Hints:
Elements: H1 3-10, H2 14-26, E1 33-35, E2 51-57, E3 63-69, E4 84-93, H3 106-122, E5 131-133, E6 146-153, E7 160-162, E8 165-176, H4 177-185, H5 188-195, H6 215-228, E9 234-236, E10 240-247, E11 250-258, H7 263-273, E12 280-283, E13 292-297, E14 302-305, E15 310-314, H8 316-325, E16 331-334, E17 340-344
Parallel strand pairs: 4-8, 9-12, 11-17, 13-15
Antiparallel strand pairs: 1-2, 2-3, 3-4, 5-6, 6-8, 7-8, 10-11, 12-13, 14-15, 16-17
Helix pairs in contact: 4-5, 5-6, 7-8
Amino acid sequence: MDDAAENAADNLSPGWDAITEAFDHLYPGREPRHFGPLIRYSLGGPDPLDGLSAWKRLEPVPHWHIVTYGLSELYAKESDDPEVSGYGFELTFRPTCDPAEEEPPVWALNFLQNLARYVFQTGNVFRDGDWMPINGPLSQESDTALRSIAFTADPELPALETPSGAVAFLQVVGLTEDEERAAKQWKTSRLLDAFRPKLPLLVTDLGRTSLLADPVMSQQVEDGTIRDGSSTGYLLTDILRWTGRKRLLRAPDYHIILGPRQVDEFTRLLPLRLPFDRPLLLVGEGGDGQSRVLFEPGERDAVVEADDKLVVRLTPATARALGETLKPHAGDYAVPGLPISFTIELAAIAA
Length: 351
């Protein structure tokens, strides 16, 4: 083989090589445990990732450092955006381990495959600061309290520039359900920063309890939330509809029907968004204009119909009053002077 052929062969997987090189710098001279599918996804295999590599380390706490191969473009450039490689990121994960452990946990490898499968099937990408409920324990083999995850930049791996574009390393961090609520109400990055002294390198420990059980930590998070407001700009609801009724010589009267499941979150987020000059969008399962309501800060209370949603502008005082009025119980609610009435409606149970 001549030099040109050798160079061509060496460049068949530039994206893969860039990821490997980043970890070679972090773990010089060490070979990872590597796992690949029997049949590649592009050839009909069930697993979307082309591979996962895992390095065991004992400091600052024993854990595995796992990385995915396949959410970025590992081989040739195929996507349209020249600045971004594939989905623009690979996932990393740091589950804790016993110092004597020789193999990374199978549940962690499967979990990363499932996250990649979600991205491949939906086209939805993860970003630094995102959070996501898992609707169950991170590992089905454990009764862990970790039932949600957050995404943050891996603290030891800067983003890469590859021939196919930029690739970020997004670390998956396990959260309890109350920690997820705190991330929504405050800001994921700020919450994780508060956790770092107790979770070095933001490892995921299936055996831990909520860090918010510590009164000092809980107060720190509460103080930060009140100080900074919330970074969550939208809230998905299982029930959301609105109607408008014109009235002779008077402003239209509006009625919003909302499910009880998100009332607590809505009333908690409203004063953490509007007083900070940030809107809050409610989106129902229908996704059309009749199931989208945008709450905005305003100098006076007002309601207007837009093409794809209802826009409700509230003064800080009215926003507080609305938050204090709505309860997560079926019934009708109103704030004096506000041309909107609310009904909290229970979801129908299928026969």
